[in-house]
Amino acid sequence: MSLKLRRITANNFRKFRAPVTIDGLTDGLNIVVEPNETGKSTLLEAIRAAFFVPHRSSNQLTRSYQPFGENVAPEVEVSFDVAGVPWTVTKRFLKSPSMELKGPRGRSQGDAAEEQLQALLGFEKDTSRNGDVTAYGALGLLWVGQGEALAVSAPGRIVRDTIQATLEAEVGTILGGAAYERVRERVDQQCAVFWTAKGSPGGEQKAARERLDQAQVVAGEAASKVELLEKNFAEVEATRVSLKLLQREMADTTDSDRRADLVRSLEIARAAAQMLAQRKAEYDIASIRVQTLDEVTSRYTTAIRVRDKAQVALDTAKVRRAERSEELTAARHKANAARIMLAEARTNRQQVKTALAEAEKQAATLRRRQAIRSARIRHETVIELEERLSIARATSATMIPSERISRLEKGERSIAEARAKLAAGATTIELVGSAPDVRIDGKPVTTDRRVLTHETRVSLGPGAELIIRPPASAGSADLELTEAMARQNEALTELGVESIAGARQRNDTARDAAGEMKTLSAQLEASAPAAPELGLAAGVAALKLLVTGLVSEVEGERDQDEAPPVRAFADAVESAETVLARAEGAQESAAAVLALIEEQERPLAATEAGAASDLQNAANQLEQIEKGQGFANLTENLIGARKQAAEAATVLNEAERNASAHDAHSIERGIANIDARQAAANEARRRLETDIARLEGTIESEGGKGLAERAAVATEEAIAAEQALARTTEEAQTLKLLRDTLEEVRTETSRTYVGPVTTRAKRYIDRLLPGSDLLFADDLGLAAISRGGTPEDCVSLSRGTQEQLAVLTRLAIADLLREEGRPVSLILDDPLVYADDARLDLMTEILTEAARHIQIILLTCRERAFRHMTGTRLVI
Q1: How far apart are CA 651 and CA 657, in angstroms?
Q2: CA–CA separation, 356 and 348 (whole Å)
C-alpha cells in the first residue's frame, strides 16, 4: 500500500513565521517549483517533524524549528492517507507541546498518539539530538533531503529488518521460522540483562563493574592512607637524623678558618696582578720598536731588489718591441689598401642597386596600370550584376508566407462550405415564362434563379399575395457566407492579389528570383578576386573602394612600349655583390693579420710600461726610506732595540710567575663557595625543622583513626566484587556469543535471498547503465556496478551517477515494500543536481512511470529542468 500526503500546514516553523499551507497533493507526481530561500527544504523538515520527532522533545533539533530571533511554539499539521484511509497528525513543540492523531477510529493524543503513529508507519522513537533518519524507517530512506542522495548508501537497520522479513516471507521460512524467532527473542531478553541495545556492557554487567570500581576505589583510598601514615613515621625519623648531621657540620670551624686565609691571599694576588700589567706594557713598547726597525730594513732590501728586476725587464721589452715594428708597419699599409678597395666595391654596388630599383619601379608601374584597367572592367560587371541582384531580391521579398497561403486556402474552403450550407438550407424560386403582373418585394420578377434567405412577399395580382418563409437556418448560412467572403477579400486585399491563384503565381515568381539571387551572388564573388599589384583584397566592397579612389588618375593613359631590362640590372647587381664579397674577404684577411700583430705587440708594450712603472716606484721608495729619520744608524739602533726587548721579556716572565702563584679569580670563587655553603646550611636547617613539625602534626591527626582495619575490610570487598564481575562477564559473553552465532547463521542464510532486491533494482538501473550487473553488500546497500565483467565501487563513480543510482535503489526498495503492504511514498528535495541533459530526461521519465504506483513529491528550484514533466504543479 502507499502513503499519500494530502495537505501540509506549518506555522512558526523556521522561515514560516505565518501559517503556510500546501494543499491539493495528488496520488501520482507532485512538483513544487519555487526559487531559492522560499522554504522547500523547510517544508520537508516540517513533514519529518510532524511524523518522527516526539512532541515533548526540547533538544537542539526542535529548538532549531523556532524562527530566528523569536520565542514561539512551532506547529505542524499533515493530512495523509494510508491504504485509502484518511489520517491527520497535529504537533506543537516547545511551548505547551501537544500531539493529536485523528483516524478512522477517532482521536488519540500525547504519547499514545505517538505510539499509534509509530505502529502505523513502522518507525522508532528518535532520541538523538539532531535527528536520526535511520530511526524513521522506510520513510526516512525515501524522504530525501537536500544533498542526502549525493552518495549511494545502505538502508538503516529498520529498513533492513523489514526487507529481510519481506524476503523471508517471499522465499519461505528460514531457520525454523517461528521457532527461531522464539529462541531469538528469549536470547535477546537474556542479553538485555547484560548488554545495551548498542552492544555495550549494561545491566548486571554494568552494575558488577560499578561495584568493583567502587570497591577498588575505597580499598585504594584506605591503603593509600595507611601507606601515607607509615611513610610519615619513616620520614620524620629520617628528617630528625638529617637535622642532627647538619647541626654537626655547621658547628665545624674549618670553613671560617679557610675563608680568613683566602682573604689574605686575595690581597697578595691583587698586588701581583698590578705589577704584571706594568711589566707587560714595558715589554709591548720594546717589541713594537724592534718590529718597526725590522720593517724599515725589510722595505729597503725589497725596494733595491725590485729596482734591479724592473731595470732588466725594461731593457728586454724595448728590444722585443723594436723587432716587431717593421711587421706592424707593413700590416697597417696592407689593411689601408684593402679598406679603400672595399669602399669602392660598396659604392659600385649601391649604384647598380639604384638602377635595379628604378627598373623594378617602372615594371611595377606598368603592372599596376594593367591591373587598374582590369579592375575597372570587373567593376562595370559588378555594377551590372548588383542591379540584377537588387531586382531579384525585391522580387524574392514579395514571397507570401506559407501560413498565409494556408490561411487563404482555408478561407476558400470556408466560402465553399458556406455556399453548400446555404444551398442545402435555403429556398430557391425560378420563373419560367412571362408574368408581368407578378412582383417580389415590389420589384418585377426576372427569369433568373433566386435564393431566398428571409421572408419574401410575392404579389400575384390585385388582392393576392404569396408569403414565402424559408427555414431560419438559411439566414445564418447566408450571413456566414457573407462573412467568409468578406474575410477572404480582406486577406487578398492585404496581400495585394486578386485571387489565391494570383498569390500562388506571385510565390512562384519570388521563388525563381530567390534561385537567381544565389546565382548572381556567386557571380559577384567570382567577379571580385584579389589583386596583389593594387593591394586589393578579394570582395566586392574592396573593389568598389579601389575604383572610387582611382577617379583622380588619368583615364586612357598609354602604357610603355616595353618593360625595362630588369634582368640585366639584376645581373649587374649580382656581379657587384661578388666583387664586394671579394673585397670584404681581402679586408677581413688584412684586418686579421694586423690584429694578430697588434695582439702580439700589445703585451710587449704593456710589459715595457709595467717595468718602467715598477722602476720608478722602487726609486721613489728608496729615496723616501733613505731620507727617513735614523736611517744612517739603522743597524746600531736595531741591535740596541733587540737587547732592550730581551731584558723586558725576562722581567715580564718573572712577573707572570708571581701573578700565577696567586689567582685572584680562584680565590674569589673559593670565598663565594664558602659563603654559599653557609647560607644553604642555614636554609636547609630551617626547612628540616619545618618538615618535622608538619609530619608530627599529621601523625598526631591520623594515628587514631583505625586505618589498618578499614583497609583490610575494603580489600576483602574488592576481591568479592572482582569475583562477581568475572562470573557476570563470563555469562554475558556466553549469551552474546550465542546471539551473534544465531545472527551470523541467519545473515549467511538470508544473503542468498537478495535476488528479489537485485531484480527490482536492475530493471531501473539497466535503463541508466545498460548491460551492467549489480553487486549488493550484506547490509543491502548497492556496493558496486559491474560493466564488462569489471566491478566498479560506487564511491569511485561520478557524483551525478551516484546520485542517480541512489534515487533508483530507493525506488526499487519502495517497490518491494509497497508490494508487501508497507506504507511508502517518495519525496526528493532538489534532486538530480549533477545530471546531464540525457540522464535528466531518462531519470524524469523513470520518476513519471514510478508515480503511477506511488506518490512522488519533487521539491526543486529548477523550473526549466522539470518543465516537461506531467504532474500536479503546486506553490508554497
Answers
A1: 10
A2: 13
